Amino acid sequence: MNENTAYDVGIIGGGPAGSTMASYLAKAGLKVAVFEASAFPREHVGESLVPATTPVLREIGALEKIDQGGFPRKYGAAWTSADSRPASPMDFQVSSHGWGVAEISYEERKQKGVEQPYSYHVDRGRFDLILLEHARELGATVHTETRVNRVDFTDPDRPVLHVTADGEKRQVPVRMVVDASGRQTHLGNQLKIKVPDPVFNQYAVHTWFEGLDREALARDESQSDFIHVHFLPLEDTWVWQIPITDTITSIGVVTQKKRFKAAKDDLETFFWDTVSSRPDLHKQLQQCERLRPFKTEGDYSYAMRAVAGDGMVLIGDAARFVDPIFSSGVSVAMNSARLAAADIIAAAEAGDFRRERFDTYVDTLRRGVNSWYDFISIYYRLNILFTAFIDDPRYRMDVIRMLQGDVYDDVEPPALAVMREFVAAVEADPEHLWHGRLGNLKASAAAAALF
Questions:
Q1: Residue closest to 52 by CA, chosen among 107, 135, 112
Q2: How far apart are CA 406 and CA 51, in angstroms?
Q3: 179-203: b or e for each residue (b if 16 or more CB lie within 10 Å)?
Q4: At a CB cut-off of 8 Å and minimum separation 6, what does 342 contact?
Q5: Given a cut of 80, is residue 346 above it in pLDDT?
Q6: Kindly report the CA angle at 369 between 368 and 371, in degrees rounded to 5?
Q7: Counting runs of H as helices and runs of E as strands, what totals does the chain give?
């Protein structure tokens, strides 16, 4: 790396957010460099994609590579419940299989820019490498095993990245910086603008298993390769089930910090004790071979006081992270890159990288992520309502729209407002049939939004 080389844009991080941004900018003719601390491929959680990633993959020219990459195709999602308490149907139109369980297929709703009825389950090591190499092929300069130590914004028109590679420290001047460092939140920490979420503080323990009988856990064998979310009879605790190959499945337990904290030094016992609350799931996993050590992901949700400034933009998890129950992570990463890239390209054409140039990105990201946040909040507060809305034909298309990740380019789905109103009514009425089903986590995007 030549320390005297000046790039138009320096990107911190080579995951889906950084590589997608690099692809958009390189296609537009900008001189862009990606600085990634790790050597690729590397393990990473967040393996299930929603269809909102598909138009982005198509725009940057990587969709065919992903489609031919051998990744399992994801045609839908399913939720299973261990709650056998009776519940009156009230005024909801509920399917014959009862309360607390639900399935959706992506093909039920057409989505702009999505011509295929599936997304993908991905091995993030392979997926991220494909995207990073694709950015390189488009003309981006990619530096792996290169750590950004800090960014000097003394001259807002010429930020300087201080990096270390092969034991050598160098300075790299750029016209602007994009922080795509993921949950390391490089600029959030450096500038002290990161704020923990006031409610969501979930932890996950996860691994890969070989030989899980997915059909045994699915309501219908045709849905065995859907992503499954298994509700547990424990407060605000659930399990993800994500196909990685024909025989390998990612399994993760997500729970509140207070439950995890007591057992964090014995992940294996914690995992199996938690899963044992669902005997059907526990039985199937006991018959499998675990392929990886148990790993943890913590402090799940946070926001930033600002996601743009003079000469800088934050994207993906570096900008905002929300609990991953609806597989929003990679979608937010790639769509935030798409949105921010449009503003950056326009700013480069104008020769002006002041904060105001990125207002469209900031406003659109806020609207989309806040919809995700409220949707997730409602699930945790009253998950029986979530499955009721999936089953009810009056609301099903709106819910599928949100589960597709289609939350950025239009007004908020009307069903979300109805869900908020219903939760408020249940909270206000101790005699309500569902009052005893309220979860402990209570939040709203309006209260949590900071940027």
A1: 112
A2: 8
A3: bbbbbebbbbeebebbeebebbbbb
A4: 24, 360, 361
A5: yes
A6: 70
A7: 15, 20
Taking the C-alpha atoms of residue 280 and residue 255, their distance in angstroms, rounded to an integer, is 19
Nearest to 395 by CA among 102, 80, 96: 102
Residue 2: is its pLDDT beyond 60?
Answer: no
Whole-angstrom distance, CA of residue 284 vs CA of residue 287: 5
Express each pLDDT in 401-414 by its tens digit: 999 999 987 788 89
Residue showing tokens 């939040």: 443
Question: Is 450 within 8 Å of 432 (Cβ atoms)?
Answer: no
Dist CA 405 CA 119 (whole Å):
11
Name the DSSP class of 234: S
Residue 402 · residue 416 · CB < 8 Å: yes
Give the three-class secondary structure for 93. Answer: coil
Note whether 387 and 104 are within 8 A (CB): no
For 259-263, the CB contacts below 8 A with 24+ separation are 259/234, 259/235, 260/203, 260/205, 260/296, 260/298
Q: Which residues neighbour 82 within 8 Å (Cβ) at sequence distance 6 or greater?
A: 230, 231, 232, 233, 277, 278
Q: Is 409 left (phi over 0), alpha (psi -120 to 50) or beta?
A: alpha
Quote the tokens at residue 283. 């039985």
Give the C-alpha separation, 369 to 301, whole Å.
Answer: 12
For residue 109, how many other CB atoms are within 10 A of its CB?
Answer: 18
How many whole angstroms separate alpha carbon 387 and alpha carbon 447?
25
Nearest-10 crossing angle of helices 53-60, 329-350: 40
Each residue of 40-69: pLDDT tens digit? Answer: 999 888 889 999 999 999 999 999 999 999
Q: What percent of the chain has pLDDT over 90?
A: 68
Would you call 156 helix, strand, or coil by DSSP? coil
Question: Looking at the DSSP assignment, which residues form a beta bridge with residue 29?
Answer: none
- The alpha carbon dihedral of 160, 164, 166, 170 has a sign of positive
Give the chain's end-to-end CA distance (angstroms, integer).
Answer: 35
Closest residue by Cα to residue 293 from 310, 260, 274, 268: 268
Burial string for 402-414 (b: 16+ CB within 10 Å, else e) reads bbbbbbbeeebbe
